[in-house]
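Lab channel / #folding
Pinned by the channel admin:
"Please post every new chain as: sequence first, then the structure tokens as a reply. Keep commentary short and put observations after the output so the thread stays searchable."

First post following the new format, from NK:
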Amino acid sequence: MNDRDVEDVQSLRAQFRAFLDSAPKPPGLRNYGPTPTADDVAPGRAWHRYLADNGYTCLHWPREFGGAAASVAYQAAFAEECARAGVPRQLNITGPDLVGPVLIKFGSPEQKDRFLGGIRIGDDVWTQLFSEPGAGSDLASLRTRAEHTATGWRIDGQKVWSSAAASADYGLLLARTGPDKHRGLSMFVVPMDTPGVTVRPLTQMDGESKFNEVFFDSAELSDDALIGEVGQGWTLAMVTLGRERLTLGSQAVAMFQLHERMVDAARDHGLLDPVLSRSMTRLWSRMWLLRYTWQRAIDSGDLTSSAFSVLKLMTSETDQHLGDMATEVLGTDACVDPADDELVHHMLVGRAQTILGGTSEIQRNILGERVLGLPKEPR
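Reply from TO:
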């Protein structure tokens, strides 16, 4: 960035901060992250609608679809200021960040008219129906099948780890329509109240139920549920997964805030000795490295940059280490109800960070094979 760019970003931050500080917060609103629980949906929807009314949702969408055509730096600054203000930047990640760009680029005019408005103003919750019990990190091996019928498509199979599926109005489904591993996949819109679709919430060890199993038992979809063309699903899936990486910068801000609370807790417990102080300083340094890696990715403006794979790996492992350190700080207080202590909650949630969104092992394979050109892992 040149000096003028830095000045512009700082001006934007001041604008965002003033707006967020003065914005009325719905009762029950909290910064629940990319995925609301069932209790978060109502306040999250009201908050999203307020943001939409003031032009702060779907910032990356083209103006013709109600977005702001905002730069990556603009989006990142807003996400970070929301994290600092302790509020979600939108209702959930799937609709605005993943589904919207896919429909804008590949959807039919009818699909755009039908779905984009509800996403932009927060009327509709979406869930991503990608991962399966036997196809998590190896997404292309999924087995949920979509068979073409005289009236549309029949879906049979199972998905898992589907965020917000229990509260969702629609799902973005990746299903198999042919034998080829990649070219045999297609993408569909699934109304979640379709007969034959069953959602089973999964209770996490922190007591929340953000993720779900979803079962398809001869669920019938109309012909116009297909997005793009038959066999184009893998291409569309890569668009959605690329967008996920852009959410990582705001996590770095949340980490700094949590680190500060952890230092205060260690001081309150009388545990801030030289050994723990060195560990906390080392983690603080890693968080700054993550922050600067995020800034380099933003500066490039290239969503296909390998920096985003580095970000996923660094964010997941740093966040997990931050949670692990909470056990040293809390001692026996780590046994309290996670609803009563943010550090306990993060300690539990942190265990999943190196699994969700693509395991750290898979991220290392991607970086080694596709970025560094190293020999492929034996299979």
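NK: The first strand starts at residue 126 and ends at 129.
TO: also worth noting, The CA atoms of residues 277 and 374 lie 38 Å apart.
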